[in-house]
Design brief:
Layout lengths: L8 E2 H7 L4 E5 L5 E2 L1 E3 L9 E4 L12 H6 L4 E4 L2 H4 L8 E4 L2 H12 L8 E6 L4 H14 L4 E5 L2 E4 L2 E4 L8 H13 L4 E5 L2 H5 L8 E6 L7 H4 L2 H9 L5 E10 L15 E5 L6 E8 L4 E7 L6
Parallel strand pairs: 4-5, 5-6, 6-7, 8-12, 8-13, 9-12, 13-14, 14-15, 15-16
Antiparallel strand pairs: 1-3, 2-7, 9-10, 10-11, 16-17
Helix pairs in contact: 4-6
């Protein structure tokens, strides 16, 4: 069982963390808060309940329930639903509760992004395989690595559990990063779904490497249009560090759609103009082999 001590955060600290998002607030700044959640079933005395609007449910509709469960503070983004209740209660109104929830969890788990090397992989197909292979190569090369992927949550070779979602919620991502720090792990390999990007489950994480395997028509029940789906995938590159690299499958992706400077892009594929060209592919039911040719390009 994974245990940790109770962490207390004073109200003034919460204001400091959310200062760029706050519209107004009404709550005691000297009070201590012990837990942040977007799930009423996890509320305990002293908890902060963050109202997240999801696909099927809106956390704002559960404010009364949260208060009945002894939530000490409500964080919301919908002022109309805040004002519907006929009694006063402590609250913070922010512009975006998903961003607020991410920032609070990073602070709660005392995460300093500079302590880590984040590698993010997205794409319609292949992201689980690529993320797992990167984690495997790192650990086999005696480089500590954590894996957050469909196939499992791992700290080096230790399997913690198999997740329900491809990318867990930002609260769980934060907890895993914190566990990684306690184990002295620097490399975090993240499989990043389009849902995770849209729902800000990896909000503000600075990636050293961002990989896009491909984009085909999928998840249009959620993203509504292919263009929206594509732009959501591309948004991963907006979280790339200034000296980071975006790795692109040139067979499937038009570089004009990638929001990166040319010097920050590495390409691969069967396309003869790629930086790394795939050739001599051979495969059967048990294995695949191929050759990768690195192209040396002369700078003008």
């Amino acid at each position: 069982m994974l245990l940790r001590s109770v962490i207390i955060m004073i109200g003034q600290k919460i204001i400091s963390i959310l200062k760029d998002l706050i519209i107004e607030y009404h709550f005691p700044l000297e009070k201590d808060y012990t837990f942040f959640t977007n799930n009423t079933n996890k509320i305990k005395p002293g908890s902060v309940f963050v109202c997240i609007k999801g696909t099927y449910f809106d956390g704002h509709d559960f404010i009364k329930t949260a208060l009945e469960y002894k939530a000490a503070l409500i964080i919301a983004e919908n002022p109309k639903k805040l004002s519907k209740l006929p009694f006063d209660f402590p609250y913070i109104l922010v512009s975006d509760t998903k961003k607020a929830y991410a920032l609070l969890n990073y602070a709660y788990y005392n995460i300093n992004f500079d302590d880590f090397n984040f590698i993010g992989v997205t794409g319609t197909n292949g992201k689980t395989t690529v993320t797992s292979l990167i984690h495997y190569v790192l650990t086999q090369g005696n480089q500590n690595s954590s894996l957050i992927s469909t196939v499992g949550i791992k700290l080096n070779d230790e399997l913690l559990y198999e997740p329900y979602n491809t990318t867990p919620g930002v609260d769980e991502v934060s907890r895993i990063i914190n566990l990684s720090k306690n184990k002295g792990i620097k490399n975090i390999c993240l499989e990043v779904s389009s849902h995770a990007l849209a729902q800000k489950r990896v909000y503000d994480i600075p990636f050293s490497i961002a990989i896009l395997t491909n984009i085909t028509r999928d998840h249009l029940d959620y993203h509504k249009t292919f263009e929206e789906y594509k732009m959501t995938k591309m948004s991963l590159f907006k979280q790339l560090k200034n000296d980071g690299y975006g790795i692109i499958n040139l067979d499937c992706i038009d570089l004009k759609d990638v929001p990166l400077e040319k010097d920050n892009i590495i390409t691969y594929g069967f396309d003869k103009t790629a930086d790394y060209i795939i050739s001599d592919v051979d495969y059967n039911n048990s294995q695949m082999s191929f050759t990768i040719i690195k192209i040396i390009k002369c700078r003008q």
